[in-house]
Amino acid sequence: MRILLVNTNRKPDLLAAPPLGLCYVASATEAAGHEVKVVDLCFAGSNYKESLRNAIQSFNPEVIGLSIRNIDNVNILHPVSYLPEVLEVTETIRRCFSSPIVVGGSGASLMPESVLKMLQADFIVVSDGESCFVELLRSLERGESPEAIPGVGMMLGDKFHITEPVLGEFKGPAPDLGRWIDTKPYNRIGGSYNIQSKRGCRQKCIYCTYNQSLEGNKLRLRSPVEVVDEIEEALTKYRPKIFEFVDSVFNDPLEHSLQILEEIVRRPWKAEFTSMGMHPRNLDKQYLNLMWRAGFRSFMITPESASDKMLRNYRKGFGKDDVVRAAQAVNRTSFAAWWFFMIGGPGENNDTLQESLDFALKYLRKDRRPVTNVAHFFIGVRIYPATKLWEIAFEEGFIDTNADPLKSLWYLSEDLDLDRAVNQMTEAASICSEIYLGFDENILVFSRAAALFFKIFNFSRPYWRHFPAANRLGLMTGLRFMYRPPDMSGLIRDCLRRQGYVGRLIQETVT
């Protein structure tokens, strides 16, 4: 069969990521004997619909698969849903294509019934898409019903039906990103070549979907040699500036990540690496030294809080002392580290918020240290179905039985004085250039121009490491808060009100 796969992510800013999952599906589909073409709409510009129609006309596919990376931008201060644009893609396809449309990707896996109904696609595949998509194609070829295939959802009459996915070993053809998509536009904006060494997450964070609908809570590890072989092949063929490990937590299990790092060190070539997620408990001098020797120069780390109370409430599996020790170890290096803090979970109050801010002010400021830290503070916790936080939010009245999971739904602790919390965060950011707040996301509209500047003057990657320098310039010139909404508390209350919340947080008045 001829299969057209489409990356629907159209957010070509500094944080744009190549569609790794889609490329896994493309490789598995081709290995199963099908003819495959991939269309990446991320950099297609305003005529993306014409590009899509031309691809359909020239390739004449028998099945089209759409990949959805994210449902929305996860920002309570200016929530943006990406699904209306995906719906436009679907409608464009329907005007010139009458065969099956299949939806997949991490965004689709979060809430399959709602996504399928909104987009009016024929089928949806969840979790490990490459296995169930190939089984779906085999079923369609034979004219059989796919309703019993694990991980495949569809409408049977007026009812949604999905067979629970079976999460097997993480193996199969390497995704070979550079073969399926043009990686040069991602490279131009400072993007990376993505590598995945495992699936599954055994952490128990109450808000997270990785250990639920996306990858499950059982670790499925790739062979370290296989992982590094993939890196070596991509380095030889495509010469990417930087590789990024996109595992939910790269250094858990610790032994697996050590084997990967040691295997990289053994190879004769050199490459630069970063990582999407690190666990603070395993970040000590010895581990960080091995990372540096392997070619890592940056990473992201998600403690979410520096309060023991909040770390327990989030079920992070580590304490404040672990976060402090990690910061102290990182501060003795020349890494760039992007720290994420999620403010407003169950039990959060202004004192626990201040603990996290004080941690940033004490441990994450430059202060003549070789390290470069970014401390990203989000307020509000996004609520997703099938998580523990969804249950808590329902019990506390943030959502009800009619809550639409496709909408931007938020939890915010009623123990917070919201106006004071906004002032606390803004005051900390006014004296600490390392602190990056939710409204700062607005600067991403300039990221393509900034990336060109960074490239011309040979700035080091990833480009987010330069956020503190930009903030320092903003503080010196008085432009630091030019994008700060005049009433942040009001925006947050409006967002809560729209989702049906009627509790204390929206009943407060600003004095």
Polypeptide structure, described:
The N and C termini lie far apart (65 Å). The protein has 21 helices and 18 strands. It has 2 domains: 2-162, Rossmann fold, CATH 3.40.50; 183-366 and 416-480, pyruvate-formate lyase- activating enzyme, CATH 3.80.30.20. The radius of gyration is 23 Å and the shape is globular. The mean pLDDT is 94. Helices cover 40% and strands 15% of the residues. Helix 1 (20-31) crosses helix 6. The strands form 5 sheets. The protein has a 7-stranded mixed sheet, with helices on both faces.
**Percentage of residues in strands:** 5-15%
Radius of gyration from the alpha-carbon trace, in angstroms: 23 Å
- Mean of residue pLDDT? 94
Structural class by SSE content: alpha/beta
Segments where pLDDT lies below 50 for 5+ residues? none
What topology, given as strand order, has the largest sheet?
A: 2-1-3-4-5-6-7
CATH topology of the largest domain: pyruvate-formate lyase- activating enzyme
Compute the number of structural domains: 2
Query: What is the percent of helical residues?
Result: 40-55%
